[in-house]
Amino acid sequence: MPSNLKSQNLSIMMTDIQGYTNASSSSSREEIIGLIRRHNQLMIPVITFYGGTIIKSIGDAFLCTFSSATDAVVCSIIIQLLLKEYNKKQKEESKKMKLRVVINTGDVSIEKNDIYGDAVNITARMEGLECFPGGTIGISESTYLMMNRNEIVTEKVGPQTLKGIPDPVNVYKIPLDRQKLTEIPAKLLQLVEKSFEKGGSGQDGSAAISSAQFNEWNTAVVGFLKEKNWGENIGSLLDEKKIRENVTNVQKQLTATFSQKTVIESKGKLDFNDASMASRIKAGAIDAVIFTIAWLVIYYAAWWPAQSIVFGKPHISAAELEVIKDSKTKGMKYEEKDVVVNKLMLDYKQQFDKKSGSLIFARPKGVLEWFISLNMEYPILILALYMAFFWMIKGASPGQIAAQNAVVRDDGSPIDAATAVKRAFIFAASVAFFFIGVLYIFTESRKTLYDKMCATRVVE
Asked: Can you list the positions of beta strands (E) in 356-443?
């Protein structure tokens, strides 16, 4: 496999408008562009909201991927309900959109901005099934097994023979009138239209919308779906809102802190005094709070969602593991299949999930993911980079600036970049080993281990 080709288990969504080809042949260029633009306006915000990635957009058709099967199906339901509301407002039949949505889940090969594999081919063939006309949603059995079946009502259609696919595929319908959510408030549709009508739009239906317009739409959707409590990403979105509020508060504090002059800037080296124990403890406490919030923001708002999107969900259910087994061993002989299954069971470590009371399996991590995860869970390297950055540019960390402390050489001159980096990494290592390096401050010299090793001191 080429180095730039990677494999991931994803839910693949394909959409198209029933009758689009016939309609486009009898419509003007402006009418076709208008239809595509409206189609994109209604779909893109919802796909984005549910964490979908648009791989391709060709005329009336979208090819998207989701890391969560539940979110892929819920997203398709929201889109169909939006279109239902939109179609009610259209007097001309030609302006109505009967969207067909099909979803399949399986291993795909990802290269640059495209996806390949049997799972993609199955999804494409499902679009041609007569059991999924415009206005409906169809899913494969692999998606059915991986989604939250307590949240979504399905109707089994049965095995279907797909062109070019050797084995029949079991498929299901998603009846819109039997879901937890059966209609969308007209206000949401109006917000979508409003946000795009005011922005400039290209022929592909993209639009330049202001952050205020997008926030109005996004806030309304989050509020509405919070009320309905539907979808796997709602909780994380709400957590991110709290995180953003914390980030704003930290930004304000940092702005106020950096507006102050450091000890180095306000005094000459002859006026420096060794920092008191009280001021050093104060500086350390402030840095601990700021760094902890910054680390939590990086972990939960950046790494946590990015990990699932880039590398896949950290844990999978027994049913999901069965789907992976089937996809990996398809067409193999018994002996070959046995080897692959045994390797999978070694790779996917079995765990007990107390929350659900069931067995789950930890997905194996590659070297890059393992390295990032390790540093996110034990942020010693991040701490070292944090301290090195501030000591290089200001000669003091945010906590030290607030406490009117600074780090200088033993002779009172400012530290250089190399010393700042060296001191930061020794400091981080000492924190990792039960603050041993910090405890040196209680010796006769009143200097920490990293101050001794770097010939530096903390002054006020």
From this structure: 358-362, 406-409
Q: What type of residue sits at position 221?
A: V
**With 90 as the cut, is the pLDDT of residue 126 above it?**
yes
Count of positions (residues) in the chain: 460
Q: In 3D, which of 122, 154, 120, 156 has the Cα closest to residue 10?
A: 120
Buried b (16+ CB within 10 A) or exposed e, 374-383: ebbeebeebb
Boundary (domain end) residue, out of 300, 329, 362: 362
d(CA 249, CA 293) in angstroms, rounded, equals 10
Give the up-direction half-sphere exposure of residue 148: CA atoms within 13 A in the CB hemisphere: 14
Same domain, 220 and 253: no
Average pLDDT over residues 380-394: 89
259 and 355 in a single domain? The answer is no
Tens digit of each residue's pLDDT (9 = 90 or more) over 4-40: 667 888 999 999 887 766 666 666 677 777 777 777 7
The answer to whether residues 169 and 214 belong to one domain is yes
Q: Does residue 18 sit in the same domain as residue 136?
A: yes
pTM assigned to the model = 0.51
Burial of 2 (0-12, 13-18, 19+ CB in 10 A): exposed
